[in-house]
Specification:
The protein is mainly beta and 389 residues long. Helix content is 7%, strand content 41%. The chain has one domain (4-387): YVTN repeat-like/Quinoprotein amine dehydrogenase (Methylamine Dehydrogenase, Chain H, 7 Propeller), CATH 2.130.10. The protein has helices spanning 139-145, 185-196, 198-207, and strands spanning 4-8, 18-20, 35-41, 54-60, 70-75, 87-88, 94-101, 104-111, 117-120, 126-127, 133-136, 168-173, 179-184, 210-218, 224-232, 243-249, 256-260, 262-267, 272-277, 280-285, 292-297, 308-310, 316-320, 327-333, 338-345, 362-363, 369-374, 381-387. It is globular, with a radius of gyration of 20 Å.
Length: 389
Amino acid sequence: MSGWRLTKLTQSLAESGGISHSYYDIPVFDEPGAQIIAHRLPFTMRHPGAEDAVEIGLVGCNAAGPDNFQIIGESRAWSWQQGPMAQWIAGGPRVVWNDREDGKIVARVKDTLTGDVRTLPGQVYAIDAAGKTALSLDMTRLDALRAGYGYPGGVAPDGLSRAPADDGVWAMDIETGHRTLLLDIRRAVGFMNKHRGWRDYIKRQGLRVHYWFNHAKISPDGTRFTIKLRWRRIGRGWDDRQGVSLTCKMDGSDLRFLAPATSHVIWLDSERLYFWQRNALRLYLDSAPLGTMLHQMAPDLVTANVHMRHLDDGNLFVLDTPYNEKIDVITWDAAADVSQTIATFTGHVPKSGPFRCDLHPCPSADGKRIALTSLQDGARDVYLLDRMG
């Protein structure tokens, strides 16, 4: 017995685009863990256009079947890997998702109890735990430089500035919509250059790479954020070595270089972060000016890149084995160094590329439930793992 019960919450037609939650590092559960915010897709196996819409809906965690999707809105700003970034604000009852209005990316804030909807002037990526401040990125730049994660409709890649000083990570007040540029891309690149050496800088300059931000995440105490700075030559491939993780205060000060070649970075607490790096899962201290590696995590268990979240105070973790047709969901007890496979999903074709379906295991606030999206029955559907006892 795994100690977890698996339930398929939604039922999509095999020929449809299916139903999915947005991403694994944002709050897709409400505070009680009773509802998951998700989106219903209109098609599969092609990139969305600026006019292609998904339906935003609520999935009940104590129900199942084809009717378990309560439509509350729609979005024309979404991607295959991160959806419209639909998430709960401070546990509810308000939710937020990204949309498009008059050619610009905006955010819709909806009160799920009253039905009231407000529009914010910028897109939302991450929100602090208090529900007061959101971090925004230029998702059209992201789409132009890495399809599958951002939103279409922006400037073509060869028309983009390589390292703009007027774009980057923005803070947006959830109530007023006021936006402040915290960290511009040019500043981030200059800071990175100081810590990677002139040889690396000259190489990137010679290649005339373009830079972009992705994966903004706010620390649990709301004082700092981490951001991934990446680069590539237009039209050329890239890998995780072409990227670094930085951290910064929420007022834009105290910029720090966390680590190079990072992937799937998560705050464990307000001082430590864990992530995949090159060939291992590592725990780092957010020290200044450079991050400090504390130790490798689960060296006998994790031998390839994973999506991982902690379920409690940092002793119990859940992870998947992505980029495979058969994907396992595993819990790992860090204190005892004991792991257990709690679910297995098959049929994940394609297993890689922009149209793949990652499970993206995302825990509820109390760690007793895990939301997942799987292709196991032919279309994307939302599944739930319930912790028993």
